[in-house]
Design a protein that fits this description.
It is built from eleven helices and six strands. With 318 residues, it is α+β, with helices and mostly antiparallel strands.
């Protein structure tokens, strides 16, 4: 039986972040062709508070930690990119305005809430008279949400910088596949593998979109039975406040599919996410694969030689 390990990552600006047990590292390609890396030790808060390892709760905790690491590494790569562009233009690099960064993050989060939560509920309420039909209402609003998400991904995929980001996303997947298959980690071996990975965050998002339809239908039904009616503001309040629960359940579904890829039901559940990766991943160059490999090796540090060449099965955090 293959050993179990959690290895994941994400694409950043001109690079890749890789996360392994106990640490994560980011590697980016600079304008002069060199690769700059940054490694940080990491211990999940669930190690300190075992109750956070319980099903559903662990999903929300993992999501928050992943978002924190993701924003941090993305910002680091952005700082490197700005520094490189300033050097190219002969300018002196300015210190990052942290207040501006915080405001930008808040705006992006608010825009996401408005586009993928509030707007679908608003349109369904105003266009159709099905507010009291919990299941039908959430089917329609869920379809709106999925359409908005697909259109959003398609539109940003037309941008040159995003296409490069998606190539690095593909390099991340290929590198993880090669590592988990027990291949010696080099460019040639990694390029043999697919850019589509069932444990991708894209798959997680799509699972959340589907799970939310069912869970919000149940939540709306309870509200209607309890108070006799439901309004748009009440729906928005409850749907937003219960997003951690939806994310936790979605995590458990993703965990199940990662463990049981040999089962037809697991393959069927991950199929939409794999289709979606036709947009969010692109075939990487050898140079981009090299960055992803460097990131993974840096994340493992001195332990890399102990794990390279062994076959692993993906295992989500317990």
């Amino acid at each position: 039986m293959n050993k179990k390990i959690l290895v994941g990552g994400q694409a950043v600006i001109e690079g890749v972040m890789m996360r392994v047990p106990g640490a994560y590292a980011t590697a980016v390609r600079k304008l002069d062709g060199t690769i700059e890396t940054h490694r940080k030790e990491h211990k999940s808060i669930s190690e300190k508070f075992p109750i956070l390892k319980k099903p559903v709760i662990r999903g929300f905790v993992s999501l928050i930690e992943s978002m924190k690491i993701g924003f941090e590494t993305l910002q680091w790569s952005a700082d490197i990119a700005i520094e490189e562009e300033d050097k190219k233009a002969g300018k002196e690099t300015k210190k990052e305005n942290k207040i501006w960064t915080i405001l930008t993050t808040i705006f992006a989060f608010a825009l996401g809430i408005g586009l993928f939560v509030v707007l679908p509920l608003f349109l369904t309420t105003k266009l159709l008279n099905i507010e009291r039909q919990a299941f039908s209402f959430n089917i329609v609003s869920g379809i709106f949400r999925i359409i908005f998400f697909l259109v959003y991904l398609w539109l940003i995929s037309l941008m040159k910088d995003v296409q490069t980001l998606f190539q690095y996303h593909g390099s991340e997947h290929k590198t993880i596949y090669a590592f988990e298959a027990g291949e010696k980690l080099n460019i040639k071996n990694a390029q043999k593998f697919s850019t589509f990975h069932p444990r991708c965050g894209t798959s997680f998002i799509f699972i959340i979109l589907i799970i939310s339809i069912l869970m919000y239908a149940l939540i709306d039904t309870v509200i209607i039975l309890s108070i006799g009616s439901i309004t748009l503001p009440i729906r928005i309040i409850f749907h937003l406040s219960l997003m951690p629960l939806v994310a936790g359940v979605g995590y458990e579904v993703l965990k199940f599919t990662a463990k049981h890829q040999e089962k037809a039901i697991a393959r069927w559940m991950t199929m939409p996410g794999l289709w979606l990766q036709r947009i969010t991943t692109k075939p990487p160059t050898d140079e981009q694969i090299e960055v992803a490999i460097t990131s993974l090796k840096t994340a493992f540090g001195e332990k890399f030689n102990e794990v390279e060449g062994q076959k692993f099965t993906a295992e989500a955090i317990d």
